[in-house]
Amino acid sequence: MTSYRILRARLGVLATAALLATGAVYAKGPSPEPIEPIKPHRVTHPAKVELGKKLWFDPRLSKSGFISCNSCHNLSMGGSDNLKTSIGDKWQKGPINSPTVLNSSLNLAQFWDGRAKDLREQAGGPIANPGEMAFTHDLAVDMLRSIPEYVAEFKRVFGNDKLSIDEVTLAIAAFEETLVTPNARFDQWLKGDKKAITAQELRGYQTFKASGCVACHNGPNVGGNSFQKMGVVEAYQTDNPAEGRSAVTGKDADRFNFKVPSLRNVALTYPYFHDGAADTLPEAVDTMGRLQLGKKFTPQENADIVAFLKTLTGDQPKMVLPILPPSSDQTRRPQPFE
Amino acid sequence: MTSYRILRARLGVLATAALLATGAVYAKGPSPEPIEPIKPHRVTHPAKVELGKKLWFDPRLSKSGFISCNSCHNLSMGGSDNLKTSIGDKWQKGPINSPTVLNSSLNLAQFWDGRAKDLREQAGGPIANPGEMAFTHDLAVDMLRSIPEYVAEFKRVFGNDKLSIDEVTLAIAAFEETLVTPNARFDQWLKGDKKAITAQELRGYQTFKASGCVACHNGPNVGGNSFQKMGVVEAYQTDNPAEGRSAVTGKDADRFNFKVPSLRNVALTYPYFHDGAADTLPEAVDTMGRLQLGKKFTPQENADIVAFLKTLTGDQPKMVLPILPPSSDQTRRPQPFE
User: Fold this and answer.
1) In a domain, A209, yes or no
2) Structural domains in chain A (count)
3) DSSP string over A134-145
4) What CATH number did the domain enclosing B199 receive?
5) B 257-286 residues with CB below 8 A of A?
6) How is the co-factor bound, per the entry (chains A, B) (predicted)?
7) B280 contacts in A (CB within 8 Å)?
8) What value of ipTM does the predicted structure carry?
9) Is residue B243 among the annotated active site residues?
10) Rounded distance, CA B186 to CA A98, Å?
11) Domain extent at residue A63
């Protein structure tokens, strides 16, 4: 990615898109395509990952005892909940579409507005968000400290008796870092297996490049590495009040700038956009073409791009469902209805 | 179990309890103890089980797209939700404590009041219950039929193109039948490993037998094989309006008769009783002693019985989290907020 990224930074987005359309940037450098294969994750601390996996699936990190990380980032469903916006404590309607956790370690920041700089910072958010898990960090830590198996496991992993929220988010982030999806058919093609994708899928990729989609959706995560305005050529119509990046920077120029979502596993992560308004890939591709590129794709172009996007589904994380250590008699009981 | 069950049927519950207290029934027959080890489940149709597992974890069987079978019978948490009563569609408060799915194939019937004769009949219940998954069987089947991978998988498993709710519940039941928990330390002891349980745990078992607990909690599931009145010696005080078996039979004599819950994995399935009123095992043991047996256990007896009960935790089902087939463009989207 490096040479491509430097080039892109120099030329600016639109110029790059034009160059991409001519194919001029592919002639040189080690990375002839603007999309790169995902590398498998190498686990360096398996015990920390295993602890993080338990925390990921543990609904006792919510006030109700009903909502876990996996409720809204369901690893059976592309790391998302496939809802327009998520369901929080007491069935509150979430403000924004739940982004997939898959390959999220490759993003430049977390949340649609990038308000968390990394996975660790992100992980603490939903636990304490009154509209999501509705707990507090203190209560979450108290819960874990009341369970002897958790206490022992934190000690084994971190080598101390602290059991702090920092250790909780470190473990969750370590688990999340494992959730990459290598080996998509498109990655096989990138690596030289020219039979890994069909003629239509290849045509879709060529249209995707030639139309300028790759200006934002590039790199190993096919996105996730920049903030861009939703509605460049034409304004995006939505009832969703989220204004994106400006909520973080306070700058008016950042209004409606959102983190470009990854297109990895996009066939699994419907519905699309920050408001979840597009139910299907054909709809999302059509909207993106018109609003971001001023281009109305023909039905054939749309179908080709959709076919290409489906080649970005990688190996889903294969994992054994964790068995959670039971609460002790001292563990404060969940309060779903209070 | 056979000889013990016949004997018990002949003598009646109270007489049996008295006999058990003397140890008289242990002298003869092939089964010297009233509790029997759980046998591992032998899968005869792995493809059906695998399909059932997907359905088990699929929240698209609910109106909201958020609640799956596993939401209330969480296989990370002893097959239960560890809540007093469950959370249903739109955060409705359930009427009764969610029983564990573990070893439920060994029960004489399903639900606390036994209104479903088997797992297959049970499985259809929550999907269409407006207070639980709030869907309809027709909509559930429509959803599955709109997903090509599900269509193909049902065809492979059942050899036809029907894809009916009967096939859905058959597959879920086939999966549930695999959810047995053999190899508890107590089962190891039953099979002759006298070091598998401690002196206190053995003392607890002896008190459990001598006090008459085994009159209802017996067989391989340590319960689950009869309906009994909640509050024999002393009435059970609860705000919960459930009246148990009488809702099924219409007989006044069946009021407050509930299916005796299994004590397998009871350390994981808190809180206890049909209303989930007892948060801890010491509390549940104390209440059962007083209300069912007219016996106030000493703190030592209570602690011993609790120690014994914890030996009933068996090997939890070890399973790879399924990856669900994605919805197609034709799949009706969930309606969590409508």
Assistant:
1) yes
2) 2
3) ---HHHHHHHHH
4) 1.10.760.10
5) 267-268, 270-271, 279-282
6) Binds 2 heme groups.
7) 329
8) 0.91
9) no
10) 45
11) 46-177
Phi, psi of B278 (to 5 degrees): -95, 115
A323 part of a folded domain: no
**Same domain flag for B72 and B172:** yes
Note the pLDDT of residue A32: 84
Profile chain A (338 residues) by mean pLDDT over runs of 10 residues. 43 44 44 91 97 98 98 98 98 97 97 95 96 98 98 98 97 98 98 97 98 98 97 95 94 96 98 98 98 98 98 98 98 97
Integer Cα distance of A285 and A278 in angstroms: 9
Q: How many A-B residue pairs are in contact by the CB < 8 A criterion?
A: 99
User: With an 8 Å Cβ cutoff, is A10 touching chain B?
Assistant: no
**Residue B267, φ and ψ in degrees, nearest 5:** -65, -20
Distance of alpha carbon B338 from alpha carbon B65, whole angstroms: 12
pLDDT of res. A206: 98
Q: Is the pLDDT of residue B19 over 80?
A: no
Cα of A37 to nearest chain B Cα, Å: 22
Question: Is residue B22 over pLDDT 70?
Answer: no
Burial of A252 (0-12, 13-18, 19+ CB in 10 A): exposed
B330: in domain: no
Chain A touched by B299 (CB under 8 Å): no
Asked, for residue A334, whether it belongs to a domain, the answer is no
